Predict the 3D structure of the following.
Amino acid sequence: MSDWLDAIAWNTDGLAPAVAQDAASGEVLTLAWMNREALERTVETGEATYWSRSRKALWHKGETSGHFQKVVEIRIDCDADAILLRVESVGGIACHTGRRRCFFNKLEGAGGERRWVATEPVLEIPGKTHG
Amino acid sequence: MSDWLDAIAWNTDGLAPAVAQDAASGEVLTLAWMNREALERTVETGEATYWSRSRKALWHKGETSGHFQKVVEIRIDCDADAILLRVESVGGIACHTGRRRCFFNKLEGAGGERRWVATEPVLEIPGKTHG
């Protein structure tokens, strides 16, 4: 039975955006993409697996970096076209740049002076942390 | 100057997913889509404006329901292809179904018994609350 997978409104590429939120702090860590198989594996293994659009392959997050996302809860929205994971972010690093979260660029300034400013420190030297 | 808008990796439709998170509770409320103009208006007005993919029009969230999203902070991720808004959710209702948030469907059960279960009460009768 996979009615729960059929319930999702996958887009024309068979994907849906999946937001991962730190279960403890509430911080939004990452936005990645899942296909049906990625979500199925995520549920079966209890660790987030995404679909890498650049590599066109399933991507078990943490497989090279050790920074797995252990799943606490999975939700979908009213239109069933977006997924929300509450996760434990292993090692406290979710971004391939070695930062705690991918959303480290904050809009600052006003008028013609607006710019994106990196607000999070790099906790681990990148290279080890991709994936 | 709109370098900050050019910095975003809009997809082939000119869109990027935009997650809205309650600034007070940390709850992830909605995932919608923005184009360049939607983000520009959001920044200028301080209230979230999205691109409605179904209506193919700009959508000032709250324009019909009163449930505006007042923007506290705007972030983008490491790939600059996803947007995160921290917002004040006016009236405490972010979903067109009259619920506090759109992510009200939680995956429950195990094995062949998995199913999505609505975990949030309807706080306002829908009809008034679309948009």
Observations:
- Residues 18 and 32 of chain B are 5 Å apart (CA to CA).
- Chain B touches chain A through 39 residues (CB under 8 Å).
- Helices of chain B lie at 3-6, 36-45.
- The first helix of chain B runs from residue 3 to 6.
